[in-house]
Design goal:
Layout lengths: L6 E6 L4 H16 L7 E7 L5 H11 L7 H8 L2 E5 L5 H17 L6 E5 L6 H10 L9 E5 L7 H12 L7 E3 L7 H12 L1 H6 L5 E9 L8 H26 L8 H13 L6 H7 E7 L22 E6 L11 E6 L6 E8 L16 E7 L3 E9 L7 E8 L12 H10 L9 H20 L4 E5 L6 H8 L13
Parallel strand pairs: 1-2, 1-4, 2-3, 4-5, 5-6, 7-10, 8-15
Antiparallel strand pairs: 7-11, 8-9, 9-10, 11-12, 12-13, 13-14
Helix pairs in contact: 1-12, 2-3, 6-13, 9-10, 9-13, 10-13, 11-13
Bound molecules: NADPH dihydro-nicotinamide-adenine-dinucleotide phosphate (NDP) and the ligand O=C1O[C@H](COP(=O)(O)O)[C@@H](O)[C@H](O)[C@H]1O.
The ligand O=C1O[C@H](COP(=O)(O)O)[C@@H](O)[C@H](O)[C@H]1O binds next to loops.
EC number: 1.1.1.49
Pathway: Carbohydrate degradation; pentose phosphate pathway; D-ribulose 5-phosphate from D-glucose 6-phosphate (oxidative stage): step 1/3
GO molecular function: glucose-6-phosphate dehydrogenase activity; NADP binding
Length: about 475
């Protein structure tokens, strides 16, 4: 059982998709694991006029998983209250404060408040300002604000957003969510890198040939057309999730496993990203859009998408982290919607042996694969001798599955991140400087695309992206290890 926490959660965007699909089920898991018990309450707020009873039903429906015990769910949902509230209306914050203070007393919470901003970032500034001016922040407990992505749409807007929040909340109380940092296998990167002397010795440009990161999705744009049209795959996935993975893979060893030391090294890695000129963007980054195939609509035929939309649903690129250990190592990244499979995976390819005493038999490359999802596993490709007479080599795998046979039950990323935020641990949240350096890198690409007539490639639904993404590696003598098939 977890350590019981006291907290009042105020969820802005409490009727939204994220709250229902991720936040309420995650809070329920924390409840069942004992992190939350008697001394907590949740206020969901949004404009629509729901009652507490209706809200509690929405919450129980949201957590209605096979193993959710009905009694637990009802008990849990009884801690939920709804406040109809337009975030632009000052009067409403007064009602919100009164409800918050009442619940704080009723559940003996001690003034700890967790403000979750699960709505469009354009509202974050006004919410932060009102929380302070209307005294919804307390003086006795902690006041933490969890901020959803996207954190801006470029460096300039992210800076404005950060300043708007920073006027009312110090950096230590701002928890910027990147849900990939809550994923079990992403957290495993540091365990593998810094827990094994074997890898410490090899984790550099003397032994690593190239790194490949694939975050592929089978789903299309779904219900989020409005947002996606303003974002595209570069802003939606590369600026945050992919660059966070890059930072974890290339950062120097932190002095300790602590928030401060890890963040320092991640910031340094992101600062070391090589910025591209427009010509380098054209040579190293590919954007593309999905077209109708396999019974699925093309992006431009999706609901609420402009028929001449130039938004990219796929990005592939080659980037470099110019620090001492990784300078010169190409890092190939790709992400896209409507690809052949849902798969989040990292391949680290080591250089081949300088001499091959088994020639003319070829030596396979050692590749360490960290499969993030759907199945969490790590495998290392090695060369071994085939059993029998003679001396024939074959490729084999050393496999690691984080859980024993059977169904893998990893905690949902949001559940882990909620637990961290409750404990005041921001290690797995992004510091402002990480966000800032990521945007600076991404801005150079976006600006080159906006100012030049670089190709927007096409790829059929169900493929692994445009041919250009394969050519990007082929010209360096490489190929994607993940081909879109089960592996
Ligand atoms: N959904 C997802 O899978 C993911 C979402 N995110 C991020 O999370 C945030 C929320 O996303 P999502 O839940 O999908 O969005 P939704 O559009 O589903 O929800 C938006 C919420 O904001 C409320 N709202 C809108 N305007 C106001 C207003 N003026 N005053 C008060 N409430 C308002 C809406 O309720 P009402 O209409 O009743 O006011 C609703 O609860 C976004 O920043 C998104 O980028 C990030 C990763 C994944
Ligand atoms: O942040 C986002 O991530 C999801 C993919 O997350 P995953 O955990 O399912 O891999 C993506 O679909 C969405 O567009 C993006 O905003």
């Amino acid at each position: 059982m977890g350590t019981e926490q006291r907290a009042l959660f105020i969820i802005f965007g409490g009727t939204g998709d994220l709250a229902k699909r991720k936040l309420y089920p995650s809070l329920f898991n924390l409840y069942r694991k004992g992190f939350l018990n008697e001394n907590f309450a949740v206020i969901g707020t949004a404009r629509r006029p729901w009652t507490d009873e209706y809200f509690q039903k929405v919450v129980t429906d949201a957590i209605n998983s096979e193993d959710a015990l009905a009694e637990d769910a009802t008990q849990f949902a009884s801690h939920f209250y709804y406040q109809s509230h337009n975030v632009n209306d000052t009067e409403h914050y007064i009602t919100l404060r009164n409800l918050a203070d009442k619940l704080d007393r009723k559940y003996e919470i001690g003034g700890n408040r967790m403000f979750y901003l699960a709505m469009s970032p354009r509202f974050f500034g006004t919410i932060a300002e009102h929380l302070k001016s209307q005294k919804i922040v307390t003086t006795e407990g902690y006041n933490r604000v969890i901020v959803e992505k996207p954190f801006g749409r470029d460096f300039a807007s992210a800076t404005e957003l950060n300043d708007a929040i920073g006027r009312y909340f110090p950096e230590k109380d701002v928890f910027r969510i990147d849900h990939y940092l809550g994923k079990e296998m992403v957290q495993n990167i540091l365990a593998v890198r810094f827990g094994n002397n074997l890898f410490r010795a090899l984790w550099n440009n003397r032994y690593i040939d190239n790194i490949q990161i694939t975050l592929s999705e089978a789903l299309g744009v779904e219900e989020r057309a409005g947002y996606y049209e303003t974002a595209g795959a570069l802003r939606d996935m590369v600026q945050n999730h992919i660059l966070q993975i890059v930072a974890l893979l290339t950062m120097n060893m932190p002095a300790s496993y602590s928030e401060e030391d890890i963040r320092r090294e991640k910031i340094y890695a992101l600062k070391s990203l090589k910025k591209y000129t427009p010509a380098q963007v054209q040579a190293n980054f590919i954007r593309a859009q999905y077209t109708a195939a396999n019974g699925q609509r093309g992006y431009r035929e999706e609901e609420k998408i402009a028929s001449d939309s130039a938004t990219e649903t796929f990005v592939a690129g080659k980037l470099f982290v110019d620090n001492e250990n990784f300078s010169g190592v190409p890092i190939y990244v790709r992400t896209g919607k409507r690809l052949s499979q849902k798969r989040s995976r990292i391949d680290i390819a080591f250089k081949t042996m300088p001499t091959n005493i088994f020639a003319p038999q070829p030596l396979g490359q050692n590749v360490l694969t960290i499969n993030i999802e759907p199945e969490g596993k790590i495998f290392l490709q090695i060369n071994v001798k085939q059993v029998g007479q003679g001396f024939t080599l074959k490729k084999s795998h050393l496999d690691f599955f984080p859980t024993s046979n059977g169904k893998q039950v990893f905690p949902e990323a949001y559940e882990k991140l909620f637990a961290d935020a409750l404990a005041g641990d921001a290690t797995n949240f992004t510091h402002w400087e990480e966000v800032a350096y990521s945007w600076k890198f991404v801005d150079a690409i976006r600006t080159a695309w906006d100012q030049h007539d670089y190709a927007l490639e096409e790829y059929p639904c169900g493929s692994m992206g445009p041919v250009a993404a394969d050519k990007l590696l082929a010209r360096d003598g490489h190929k994607w290890f993940y081909t879109g098939q089960e592996h």
